[in-house]
Structures are given as C-alpha cells and as structure tokens.
Amino acid sequence: MGLFLLLLIILCLFVSVRLFLYRTTLIHRLKRWGHWIEDRIHEHQTLKVPELDENNQDNQFYRKVYTYLNSLSTIEDSDNTNLISGKKPNGIVLCLDDDQTVQDTFLGARVSWTNRVERIEEKTVCCKKTFILKLKKRDKRRILQAYIQHIYRASEDVETRCKELKLYMNTAAPAEDRRSRRRWSSVRLTHPATIETIAMDSDLKKKVKSDLDSFMKSKQYYHRLGRVWKRSYLLYGPSGTGKSSFIAAMAKFLSYDVYEIDLSKVVDDSDLKMLLLQTRKKSLIVVEDLDRFISSNSPAVSLTGMLNFMDGILNSCCGDEKLMVFTMSSKEKIDSAILRPGRIDVHIYFPLCNFNSFKTIANNCLGLKDHKLFPQVEEIFLTGSTMSPAEMTELMISNRCSPGRALKSVITALQTTTPVNGKPGMRLHHNGGLPPEESSSLPETSSVFVMDGNCSIPVVKEIQKLYGLIRMKSSKKIGPSDQFSGSIERSG
Ligand SMILES: Nc1ncnc2c1ncn2[C@@H]1O[C@H](COP(=O)(O)OP(=O)(O)OP(=O)(O)O)[C@@H](O)[C@H]1O
Ligand SMILES: [Mg+2]
C-alpha cells in the first residue's frame, strides 16, 4: 500500500513537472541548448543552393528546396515565418522569411536550412538568394543523396497538390547588372477567366482544348522528331474581343505560369534572350500587341531579334514544355516570316460579337438562357451591327439588376452602331466576324482556327482531311509541302 502511494506521488510529480516544463517552453529551450552543444562538438559542412546557376538561368533545385522548406512542419515552430494569404478563402500559407533558419530531420540526421538573402542595393527588390544547407560531416555521406531525392519527390508532391499559378513580369535593369540579375517579378495569377466563360464558338473551344491537351501529352513525340517541345499561338482580332482573357484561360487550363514580356522594358536583342533564358518550363510566354511593336520599328529589339526569340536555338536552352502566345489586332501587314509555321503554329481569330457570343455573355453576366427580347437582338445582328464583347459585357454588368433594361441598352447600342477601334459604325459580314483578309474565301464560320504544322498525330489527320476538302473547293489556297509544314487550315 505504502509502495503504491509512493508510485502515485512520483507519477503526479512527474506529470506536474512535465506540464510545468511545457508551459514555460523549457523543454523547447533545453532541446535548443542540447542542439547548440551538439553543434559545437561535431564538425559541420555547409552547402549552397543558389537561385541562379552560373549562366544566370534558374536553378531548378532552388525552386524544389523552396517548395519543400515551406511545406515543412518545423516552419511552424520557427521564428519570423511569414504568413501569406493562401488560395482558399481565409487560408494562410507559411513562407520562409529572409535569413530565417529552419530545421529538418532525415534518416535520424538533423540538418538546418537558412534562407540567405543579400540585397544588391539598399531599398531595392533586387537581391541574390541562396539556400544554405548545414549538416554534420559524418551524416553527409550517409544521407545527402537520398535527402536530395527526398526533396525532389516531396516538392513535386506539394506542387501537384497545390499549384498556384503565377504571372511574371519583366523588370527593367541597369545595363551593368542585367546579366547577373533575376529579371522577372511575379504576382499570383488570379484572373477569373476560364475557357468556359469566354464567348467563343463551341467547336473552336473544343478544338483549342484538344490541341492544348495533345500538346501536353506529346513530350515523346516532339523529342522523337528532334523538335523543341513548344507550340506558338497567335490570337488576333479587334480590341476587347477576349484575347488577353483567353491567355489567362489557357494558363488555367494547362496549369502553366504566365511570363508576360513588356517589350518597352527590353533594352536590346540579347536582353530579350536573357529574359527567355530565365523562364521556367510549363509556362506561357506572352507578347501582347506584336503588330504594334513591329510597326513601331523599335530601336531596342530588331526584327531578327524577335524572329530568333520566336523560333531560335535559345528556345531549346530554357526548359521544355512552353507555349508562346502573341496577340495582334490584325495580321494584314505582318511579314510572312513572323507567321510561318514553327513561329506561329495556331492562329485564332477573335471576332466582334455575333448572336451566339451575345447569348454566352447574357448567360454569363445576367444568368439569362432566353428572353423575349432575344429575337429582336438576333434581328439587329442580322443587319450587320455589332460591338465588342468587352462593350457588351460592360453594358450587361452595369444593368445587371434588371435583365430587361440590360438587353434594351444592348439593343440601343447596337442600333446606334457604336464606333469600334475608332472606325465609325463598323459592320460585319454575315459570317459573324471573320477577319477581313480571310472572309472572302472561307466557308461560313464565326472564328478562324488556323493550324500550321507541328501538331500531334490526331490533329494532323483531322487537318489533312479538312485540307483535302478545302483544296477541292479552292485551288488558290496555299497547301502543305508535307504533313508538318506549311499547311493552312480553316475551320469553324
Ligand atoms: N470573348 C469574350 N467572352 C467573354 N468576355 C469577353 C470576351 N471578350 C472580352 N470580354 C470581356 O471584356 C473584357 C476585356 O477583354 P480582353 O482584355 O480580354 O480583350 P482584348 O482582346 O485583350 O482587348 P485588347 O486588344 O484591347 O487588349 C474582359 O475582361 C471580359 O470581361
Ligand atoms: Mg488584351
């Protein structure tokens, strides 16, 4: 009985001491001291993982380490961790701060990582970033190889689970350190457009989706052909027809980041190359308003520089799996060298509104599938009146409380033939908005989907079939010299 009482007292004492230690975080402190002493006893080695490699290209392993460290549970216990709003509403993600150290254990070995950030100039965002791994020398041989593999696997897991799309923009840099700097800054890509919300011919949507799908699955195919795994899209059409929104929608569909090149910040041809070298795989490289750039005869970037950027050997040096997307208002005056297959593989025309796109926008903005005013709207479209989807969207959004009023305002605007692109009263042919240069020789359609070469097999077959049909109709059209080059196809 006495012994039992004694054991009970010891147990109670043990529990209260432990509780006390927890409460005062003494255990935590004792552990830290223990580690500190251990660190003094053992010889350590430090290894650096810089953000850029010796060619100033992205060090892919740096990205992996970044993702891996931010996913560690120990980051929660670490001081100065940044709390950043996450993808989910009210969600928070943890993110290492500059010069913060975080601990990790692997196969019984304790290692630490420090996020070293050296500012190049005071008060600027430009900095040199390096992760520093510190581990015991005696552990290095035993764990390092396996640990690196573990980081690759774990970061890929995290990336596929919660990939957050980014929009990268190029930053201007003084000439002296253009080559040593990271030239892109990023924000989260939060554009709400999806391929479904874009008012576009439904067959065309299907074609684009299947083209993007087959591109993603064609790694082996491209490599077997000895080609860079890249595909180029040209989106062209009047202002406010959804070209930029479609880029965001494509990025979401593919789950790719977007690199948008602002040519006014590019200093010369080699600067443009450097920007391309610093992009990552699985991304969309976007150049908006290419026609404006070409007609401006920019002193900074030459036409040759642009041609090489679109289809140069450099494309093979900056990571595979890239989509290049260019936008233009019209390709009428564009040099055919720019538009040749390989530089541009898919041409998509974005027309002004027709009755079908009006219905999609009415459904998106007002939740209307049908309305008694629809026949009146259809009639006005038949007279050739039109407006841009952007204008139509604005009218509907500003009158969204009253669908009837919204439709009436659309009718009034269509009747007064709003000036489009500065041209008063632009009217369309009854083909629903084909580009002027192509409307005369084409079957009736609402959009143009022109694909040149480089498609994956099923798409090529479909194009050849269609091409045969069109060739029978018009002998004037340009045909492919073989199945992968020069084919020009049009379908609705
Ligand atoms: N096809 C469309 N479907 C749905 N909404 C559209 C469409 N086109 C334009 N919009 C609406 O108009 C707005 C502007 O469109 P967007 O910026 O994508 O046009 P754009 O073709 O890139 O114009 P610009 O040539 O002037 O840059 C979008 O935010 C969207 O709400
Ligand atoms: Mg745009």
From TrEMBL:
<feature type="compositionally biased region" description="Low complexity">
    <location>
        <begin position="434"/>
        <end position="443"/>
    </location>
</feature>
<dbReference type="InterPro" id="IPR003959">
    <property type="entry name" value="ATPase_AAA_core"/>
</dbReference>
<dbReference type="GO" id="GO:0016887">
    <property type="term" value="F:ATP hydrolysis activity"/>
</dbReference>
<dbReference type="GO" id="GO:0006950">
    <property type="term" value="P:response to stress"/>
</dbReference>
<feature type="domain" description="AAA+ ATPase">
    <location>
        <begin position="229"/>
        <end position="354"/>
    </location>
</feature>
<dbReference type="InterPro" id="IPR025753">
    <property type="entry name" value="AAA_N_dom"/>
</dbReference>
<comment type="similarity">
    <text>Belongs to the AAA ATPase family. BCS1 subfamily.</text>
</comment>
<dbReference type="InterPro" id="IPR058017">
    <property type="entry name" value="At3g28540-like_C"/>
</dbReference>
<feature type="region of interest" description="Disordered">
    <location>
        <begin position="420"/>
        <end position="443"/>
    </location>
</feature>
<dbReference type="Pfam" id="PF14363">
    <property type="entry name" value="AAA_assoc"/>
</dbReference>
<keyword id="KW-0378">Hydrolase</keyword>
<dbReference type="Pfam" id="PF25568">
    <property type="entry name" value="AAA_lid_At3g28540"/>
</dbReference>
<dbReference type="InterPro" id="IPR050747">
    <property type="entry name" value="Mitochondrial_chaperone_BCS1"/>
</dbReference>
<dbReference type="GO" id="GO:0005524">
    <property type="term" value="F:ATP binding"/>
</dbReference>
<dbReference type="InterPro" id="IPR003593">
    <property type="entry name" value="AAA+_ATPase"/>
</dbReference>
<dbReference type="InterPro" id="IPR027417">
    <property type="entry name" value="P-loop_NTPase"/>
</dbReference>
<dbReference type="Pfam" id="PF00004">
    <property type="entry name" value="AAA"/>
</dbReference>
<protein>
    <recommendedName>
        <fullName>AAA+ ATPase domain-containing protein</fullName>
    </recommendedName>
</protein>
<keyword id="KW-0460">Magnesium</keyword>
